[in-house]
Amino acid sequence: MSKRVLIITGDMVEAQEVMYPLHRLQEEGYIVDIAAPEKKALQTVVHDFEPGFDTFTEKLGYRVQADLSFEEVEPKNYDGAVIPGGRAPEHIRGVSGFKKIVDHFVTTGKPLAFECHAALALMPFGYLKGRQCTAFPDLKLDIEAAGASFIDDSVVIDGNFVSARAWIDHPRFIKEFIKQLEQHVAPI
């Protein structure tokens, strides 16, 4: 049985938050598929901080190919999932098929990793209620309004949820997600 992970995203995903998990999980021997509203080349963005600005800036980044549309995904074929941040989460949460995919990971207890602004995609469905998680610090009020406890740390684990603030937390975030995956994946 192959070890498989699904990355759930769309256009305007933060470049480092899709590319690093993709490559790092492939290094560990996982087959990684990227799912998006449509099977196409996705436009990523680069968020960075510039002197004199109160918040991050956004520039166009690399393109990355989506392997599947949301409608084509069979969630049961995956051992875990990652939802990267950027601006994609606010869009993908309303796309047909997104909720069905995420419901699978929530109800089965398979590892679900999300970072930065990805919590926005989970909030409308009540997935965060009663949970602890982290996100980009500006989302603290949103996290709390969704009924979750915001923890300002590089990684927060609550059951099968593994969350991180942003790409700066990748080493610890992906390491913890891989630990969760290894606990839930049947031996090959």
TrEMBL record:
Residue span(s) of domain DJ-1/PfpI: 3-180
Organism: Marinithermofilum abyssi
Pfam name, any one: DJ-1_PfpI
Organism domain of life: Bacteria
Gene Ontology molecular functions: peptidase activity
Family indicated by similarity: Belongs to the peptidase C56 family.
GO BP, one annotated term: proteolysis
Protein name: Protease
Cleavable signal peptide: none
Keywords recorded for this protein, A-Z: Hydrolase, Protease
Hydrolase among keywords: yes
SUPFAM superfamilies: Class I glutamine amidotransferase-like
